[in-house]
Specification:
There is one protein chain. The chain has 281 residues and is an alpha/beta fold. It has one domain: Rossmann fold, CATH 3.40.50. It contains 11 helices and 7 strands. It has a 7-stranded mixed β-sheet, with helices on both faces. α4 packs antiparallel against α9. The two termini are 14 Å apart.
């Protein structure tokens, strides 16, 4: 990485999203002396969990997930965590009614949410902002909204004099499918896990522009995942996907999670960078 200190802002939809896609990059940047800021849009109050252990959906679960987010951020060396506080939009076929005094993220006007994020970018003098691709990775409505809000926020920041690079956090879909199949030889995924959905999720290998080796920070990434204990157990007390992942033996874990990938939508085809801040003025 560059010797000059830079600022990375990572923008995610729910507490625990940072652990899966960007935790290694965040830990790597922090260890290199860069400032890492984590911005999370929603409270995660509609996440599935063991309600007897972590509280029912709503304010109780939101409070639990906020504490888990803080623990994850500490494990990754995050300098500042910002929770925008919008209500989780959920993943079912319909968007739930807005909770008392709140609004589902997908119902918040684009300009309002983008302005809130742009304010953080400007306060921090952000060099790089990570969001998701236009499909939100695997299509969750809040993840799609992260892409839309992030794109507009970067535009607003540029209009106010801050030239911030935007990268889409992603995974090569062919690689993740192979990794899932490898893990499936050791663990049985929970019933809600849809293996076929990954055949059309995230990005093709040809679209990837940034590839980072984060094996040195696999321990921090694993700690970040473990911090989100409420999302590792389902309503029946059994393991969900996150719970399965944190129990993968360390050598296999490092193999599966030792790299992270991003797409720079402005980069020429065939670009391959291994430096998050390469080419910044």
């Amino acid at each position: 990485m560059d010797s000059a200190a830079r600022t990375l802002v990572v923008f995610h939809a729910h507490p625990d999203d940072e652990a899966l896609l960007t935790a290694g990059t965040m830990a790597r940047a922090s260890a290199a002396g860069h400032r890492v800021v984590l911005v999370v849009a929603t409270d995660g109050a509609l996440g599935l969990t063991d309600e007897s252990a972590f509280g029912s959906r709503g304010d109780a679960l939101a409070a639990t997930r906020s504490r888990e987010l803080s623990a994850s951020a500490r494990a990754l060396g995050v300098a500042r965590t910002v929770e925008l506080g919008y209500a989780d939009s959920g993943s079912g076929p319909d968007v739930w009614p807005d909770p008392p005094g709140g609004r589902r993220f997908v119902r918040v006007p684009l300009e309002e949410a983008a302005t809130a994020l742009a304010d953080v970018l400007l306060e921090e003098g952000a060099d790089v902002l990570t969001t998701y691709d236009p499909n939100g990775g695997y299509g969750h409505r809040d993840h799609v909204r992260i892409h839309e809000v992030g794109a507009r926020a970067a535009q607003l920041a540029r209009e106010r004099g801050l030239d911030v690079r935007v990268l889409w956090a992603t995974v090569p879909r062919d690689l993740i499918c192979r990794a899932i199949d490898l893990v499936a030889t050791v663990y049985r995924f929970p019933p809600e896990f849809d293996r076929s959905s990954f055949d059309r999720a995230f990005s093709s290998s040809s679209e990837i522009t940034h590839r980072f080796d984060v094996r040195r920070f696999a321990g921090a990434k694993r700690a970040s995942m473990r911090a989100h204990a409420s999302q590792a157990a389902d309503t029946g007390g059994g393991d969900r996907t996150l719970g399965m992942l944190v129990r993968i033996p360390r050598p296999m874990y490092d193999l599966v999670f030792g790299r992270e990938w991003f797409v720079d939508p402005t980069a020429p085809a065939g670009t391959t960078q291994t430096n998050l801040f390469e080419g910044l003025s």
